[in-house]
Amino acid sequence: MSPVFFGFGILLLVLQTTTFHLLPSWLGRPDLLFLLLCFIIIYFETGPGLILTLLLGMLVDVFSGIHLGVHSLAYLLLFLVLRTMVRNLAIQGSPHQVPLVITGYLATTSFVHLLATLLAPENPVLWTWPLLLQNVIILGIICLPFFHLCQRLMTLLAERPPRSWIPLRRRPPNRFKV
């Protein structure tokens, strides 16, 4: 199940870094990879969730990071905080997931901005409230449908193995066999 979600994360990262920047700025650019990370943190076991979180954080650093390791560290801290909250509180229900994702997004974005400012004070990183609020609203709107889509993918993967999705063609018997 983890390789499928890792591939899904790579697909979302490629969409974010290539296609979403072609959209007009007033339409918004949702951070779908962050939603996938929150889903992984909430619904996966601790080991595979931690590995996927770190791998996807490293990919974000390679694709769009200012300094290597900033996003990985931010996602690791997000994993620790959200995992602790999920373990100690009843967060599995839908009404609690949207505020959790929004708060996590604001905290992670603030942490990345703070680290980028501290590590490179000569290159100021702009903090734009309208863009941030627009992304928060978009994430709040698409959070539950995205989580339901990921849950559906998890149930499909749990019901049947991925090899049965590929229809294998039966070969005709060998006519020339002695």
Automatic annotation (TrEMBL):
Superkingdom, natural source: Bacteria
Membrane topology: Multi-pass membrane protein
Segments passing through the bilayer: 6-27, 34-60, 66-86, 98-120, 126-147
A GO CC term assigned to this protein in UniProt: plasma membrane
GO biological process, one term: regulation of cell shape
Signal sequence, renumbered to the chain: none
Main location: membrane
Presence of keyword Ligase: no
The keyword Transmembrane helix is annotated on this UniProt entry: yes
InterPro entries: Cell_shape_determining_MreD
Subcellular localization, as worded in the UniProt entry: Cell membrane
Keyword annotations: Cell membrane, Cell shape, Membrane, Transmembrane, Transmembrane helix
Family: Belongs to the MreD family.
Name of protein: Rod shape-determining protein MreD
